[in-house]
Design goal:
4-stranded antiparallel β-sheet; single chain; Gyrase A, domain 2; 590 residues; 4-stranded parallel β-sheet; 53% helix; 4 domains; Rossmann fold; alpha/beta
Length: 590
């Protein structure tokens, strides 16, 4: 379905060409003076100089040509040459009716769908998810859903940190705590146990203990380095332990991500890139792309147009070890071979920008990807506490993600119990749904690259620009539709469209609804979920004004009432599609 602004612009393009003007000046925009008009065209101002005419003369000429067009309720030229537009009730009503009939509420899918890999999540195994993992998971999940809504084929990859020094640290700490384990018996030649020698709770204590020990005990640290090297070289006992670590960690991670309504298509990690590294590095050296610098092998990525220094990309340290850049480059090779994507999108802290600049440029120079493949880095800001510093617990530690969600759910639960009598079970279930909306909307309503303050009380409010307010609006619509269906038998008798003669708030609601496809397309093109949040906030406000201004269930004119109900059904559909893209749902009651 075509965007409303495009349809309006086309009308002006036609009359401009008819009058001998360049149609590129026919652009229609939403009015910045809604008290005067709904849309405006300022093209006459730009045309005046080239045609040596007063802009008001050009504006009047165009308006005269458009007089009588049923699309417009009012179209006038005003000094010095603006054209103010109000569209007709019947035009906007017909447009909304078309939205109701169209797939995706009128948002067209891509004519040529793309294959896209989105790298988001990025947790390290053997460590619990904390608030620092929140933004990557929430934003990445939304982009995945947005791309799929537009018809693209998307592979979401969690990209685990599963191959670094933390593995060696865990192995050595296990040796200290449980030296009797068969994995540390070099004479053992049998099969290793299928059950892990630790639970997730025990594993999460092992790593910080090992990390702290390595900072004080140089011998322990060296053993951990050796264990890491032996693991990576394929030592059977350590590989068995490593698989236990992965299995226990991934099961816990999946459960935590499920609570966030986040899921991944593949659970690959740094270890999956390891087999590609030796040949990749050798090829870069043999081709002359990589050269030695202070014992390390590096690739120069600085370009003449750079206004700041871009250091070389180190692909192998002087001791022969690979780095994150090496692993990321090898991962691109793996993704190209496995999926042949047209785009690879990375979600990471905005402080990682230099790293991705180096990796992307190296990948292009090395021919790992050609120019047809887009490598996109989407950097996000930090989630801060009320002190505007990275979010911490009261004692200054890093808060676990499950603790944050639990705290928000408790605040929502208390609000529900204060407002009405609900069973504890129902209130808890509703609080979990609303709490997730509070967290996700609170994050996504900010521009991705910006830092923001996580304010539990504000995000959990049922009023204002919050997730609970959006859900409350949807629940209100559901309630009205249920009551109407109960009194009339069902909603199936709403065969007619929306009303064609509109109350002011009814028209305003339709005007907001009609922005749906333009909003989704803009959010998609700019990787900007905050635009969807802004849209559903405006749409919710428009609905609530309509609700207060019109007696929907008490309307005596049955045909008019059916038009109201039809409008509610479309509004609900648009809101639900949007929150599904944002990764949360609405309860039946609040």
């Amino acid at each position: 379905m075509r965007k409303l602004l495009d349809i309006l612009t086309e009308q002006f393009e036609n009359v401009m060409e008819e009058c001998g003007y360049d149609k590129k000046f026919a652009k229609i925009t939403v009015s910045n003076r809604p008290d005067l008009c709904e849309y405006q065209c300022n093209g006459a101002m730009a045309l005046a100089k080239a045609h040596k005419k007063a802009p008001i003369m050009i504006a009047n000429e165009l308006v005269e040509k458009l007089a009588g067009n049923e699309m417009f309720k009012e179209i006038v030229a005003v000094n010095p040459g603006f054209i103010n537009i109000k569209i007709s009730d019947s035009f906007i009503a017909n447009y909304v009716d078309d939205m109701a009939k169209a797939e995706n509420v009128g948002c067209e899918k891509n004519i040529k769908p793309k294959k896209v890999v989105i790298d988001y999540g990025g947790p390290n195994v053997a460590k619990p998810l904390h608030v620092g993992h929140l933004r990557s998971a929430i934003i990445g999940e939304t982009l995945k859903r947005l791309y799929r809504f537009k018809g693209d084929e998307v592979i979401g990859d969690v990209h685990l940190g599963d191959w670094g020094l933390q593995m060696g640290l865990i192995i050595e700490q296990l040796r200290v705590e449980q030296p009797e384990l068969v994995y540390f018996d070099d004479t053992y030649e049998g099969e290793y146990p299928t059950e892990a020698p630790f639970t997730i709770s025990e594993l999460e204590k092992i790593y910080p203990t090992a990390s702290a020990r390595s900072k004080e005990d140089e011998a322990f640290k060296e053993k951990a380095h050796m264990a890491t090297l032996e693991l990576q070289k394929g030592k059977k006992a350590y590989r068995a332990l490593w698989k236990h670590i992965l299995n226990v960690s991934i099961a816990d991670l999946k459960n935590n991500y499920k609570n966030l309504n986040v899921d991944f298509d593949v659970w690959k990690g740094e270890s999956d890139a390891e087999p590609y590294i030796p040949a990749m590095v050798d090829e870069m050296i043999e081709s002359g792309l990589a050269h030695e610098s202070q014992g390390a092998m590096v690739v120069d990525v600085m370009e003449e147009t750079d206004t700041k220094e871009i250091p070389p990309c180190i692909i192998r340290k002087s001791d022969g070890a690979a780095l994150y850049a090496t692993s990321d480059l090898a991962t691109i090779i793996q993704r190209v071979q496995d999926y042949n994507p047209e785009e690879i999108i990375y979600l990471a802290d905005k402080r990682q920008e230099m790293h991705f600049t180096q990796v992307f440029r190296t990948a292009k120079k090395a021919g790992i990807v050609d120019d047809s493949v887009k490598l996109i880095y989407q950097g996000f800001g930090t989630m801060n506490g009320k002190d505007n510093k990275p979010f911490k617990t009261r004692d200054g530690g890093v808060m676990r993600l499950e603790t944050l969600l639990s705290d928000v759910n408790d605040v929502i639960y208390n609000k529900i119990m204060e407002n009405r009598q609900e069973s504890e079970e129902n209130a808890r279930a509703t609080a979990k749904i609303v709490g997730l909306a509070a967290v996700k909307y609170g994050d996504l309503s900010n521009q991705t690259s910006k830092d923001y303050i996580f304010d539990t009380e504000r995000f959990a409010s049922f009023e204002g620009n919050t997730g609970p307010y959006i859900l409350y609006t949807i629940v209100r619509i559901k309630s009205i539709l249920e009551k109407y269906a109960a009194s009339e038998g069902s909603l199936d008798n709403i065969e007619t469209g929306v009303n064609k003669v509109l109350t002011p708030s009814e028209k305003n609601l339709m005007m907001e609804l009609a922005k749906f496809n333009a909003t989704i397309d803009s959010a998609y093109e700019e990787l900007a979920p905050y635009k969807i949040c802004a849209y559903i906030y405006d749409l919710s406000n428009a609905f609530n004004t309509f609700y207060h201004d019109n007696k929907i269930l008490a309307e005596e004119d049955k045909d008019k009432q059916k038009g109201f109900i039809k409008l509610l059904m479309i509004t609900k559909k648009a809101l639900e599609e949007c929150i599904d893209i944002l990764g949360f749902t609405a309860p039946d009651r609040m």
